[in-house]
Amino acid sequence: MFRRRTPVLLTAALLVGGLAGCSTPAPAPTAAPPTSPKATTPAPRVPAGTAPAPRVPAGTAPAEAFAVGVRQLKLNRGGDRPLPVTLWYPARGSAGAAAQRDATVATGRFPVVAFSHGLDGRPTDYQALLTRWAAAGFVVAAPTFPHTGKGTDGSVLDVLNQPADVSYVLDKVLALDARAGDPLRGRLATDRVAAAGHSAGGVTTIGLFTTGRDERLRAGVVLAGTGLGVGTAFAGAAAPQLFVHGRADEVVDYAAGKAAYDAVPWPKAMLSLPRGDHGRALLGDGAALRVVSDTTTEFLRWSLYGDEAAKGRLPASAARGDIAVLDDRL
Within the chain, what is the greatest distance between any pair of CA atoms? Predict the structure, then answer.
């Protein structure tokens, strides 16, 4: 009995120590790690330079910027895990304006990005970044998690349940493409899906490619994340990954993020910010956010639209302003 409990308790201690700086002090966590029907056998390690190509056929991302619409979904996994979801999406109208609630969806079929917030966070904290993704032609689905969102009990170990939450959210959001009368009917590219997240949301995102592998995912973006609790046994079909991490991160050590990045067996890149902290730049609209948003957008254009020109623009986006350094293994 004690042997079974030790890994769970150790994981709890590591998560509390490694991520508690993202939030206010939290009570002792009680949730247990989830089991996932989507988990698969870890993928074999692939020698550098021979990683398999992503599964998305070559294509072209939208050249124009869209206006952005926003709407809310009320979801609940299992009846006791409320998951309100904020959806940002390309809309008709003039680009550059603030997101408009329930605006008419733009014409086209758009890839979906599931975004996971950090501890004591909420989707709107990341609005500056996520609306830029939506303006570039992506539907962003961002749940508020029941125990790590702002104003909740802050149970850090519940992060281990969040990969399954994201998979559930994707079930419901992707189903809107076929739901009669829904504004997103016929507007979702349901075969072009990515996951992204910051801090504890980065742990959640890594979990979606390891212990809770969701095979629908074609790519991942990990912002100041670590493999604590979810491991680094990346599994399933090749899914390119982009890591973003500040070398001066005071919460999740840069080395921990780099270790997770090093374990990825697929096409990958890491955007390192020499003067970057745990990610406060993501919450504002300064030069660092512009570099992060431009680089992540080009990555998503390539990995979800199959746009090779976007892949070619990645190094220039990362180098702008001498704010970041890109390790490009895509």
Answer: 61
Q: Has residue 242 got a pLDDT over 80? A: yes
What CA–CA distances, in Å, run from 43 to 3, 164, 263, 266? 27, 20, 11, 10
User: How many CB atoms neighbour CB 26 within 10 A?
Assistant: 21
- Where are the extended beta strands (E) located within the chain? 67-77, 81-91, 100-101, 110-116, 139-143, 188-198, 217-223, 241-246, 268-273, 325-329
**Both tokens of residue 116?**
């996971």
Q: C-alpha dihedral over 42, 48, 50, 51, to 10 degrees?
A: 40
Q: Residues 158, 279, 257, 247: what is their CA dihedral angle, to the nearest 10 degrees? A: -150
198 neighbors 71 (Cβ within 8 angstroms): no
How far apart are the C-alpha atoms of 42 and 211, rounded to whole Å? 9
The CA distance from 144 to 147, in Å, is 9
Nearest-angstrom CA–CA distance, 291 and 70 = 24
Burial class (CB in 10 A: 0-12, 13-18, 19+), 109: middle
Token digits for 57?
């056929």
Range of lowest pLDDT (9-13, 66-70, 81-85): 9-13
pLDDT at residue 197 greater than cutoff 90: yes
In the sheet with 325-329, reading across from the earlier edge strand, the strands are 100-101, 67-77, 81-91, 139-143, 110-116, 188-198, 217-223, 241-246, 268-273, 325-329
Residues shown for the chain: 330
What is the mean predicted confidence (pLDDT) over 218-239? 98
Q: What domains are defined for the chain? A: 52-329 (3.40.50.1820)
pLDDT band at 285 (very low <50, low <70, confident <90, very high): confident
Pinpoint the alpha helices (H) of 92-141: 127-135
